[in-house]
């Protein structure tokens, strides 16, 4: 997993947790990518990679972490893994 993927996963986990587990809309995902300064093409690649690893689920309703993705993000928070970001 790249630093960009780790940063995106941790930020996604933080935002999803603050929303009570609600899906992130396409606009919210795009805003997150911009806040993390991830170019759009790279962001799409990160999301594709995370889908293949079954860390995120993409539906017509939006994007959300899978149970595996949540577990990995929680583990990263516990260990203080690199790639920590705060997005407001």
In DSSP terms (H or I, runs of 4 or more residues), the helix count works out at 4
**H and E string:** HHHEEH
Portion in helices: 55-70%
Beta-strand percent range: 5-15%
How much is the average pLDDT? 86
Termini separation: 24 Å
Beta-strand segment tally:
2
Helix-and-strand structural type:
mainly alpha
Largest sheet: 2 strands, antiparallel
- Rg measurement, Å: 12 Å
Looking across the biggest beta sheet, what order are the strands in? 1-2
Q: Can you tell me the overall shape? A: globular
- Low-pLDDT runs of 5+ residues are 82-88
Please supply descriptive tags for the structure shown above.
88 residues; mainly alpha; 2 strands; 9% strand
Quick synopsis:
This protein has 88 residues and is mainly alpha-helical.
Mind explaining what this structure looks like?
This protein is mainly α and 88 residues long. The protein has helices spanning 3-18, 26-35, 40-52, 67-79; strands spanning 56-59, 62-65. Strands 1-2 form a two-stranded antiparallel sheet. A hairpin with a 2-residue loop joins strand 1 and strand 2. It is globular. Mean pLDDT is 86; it is low at 82-88.
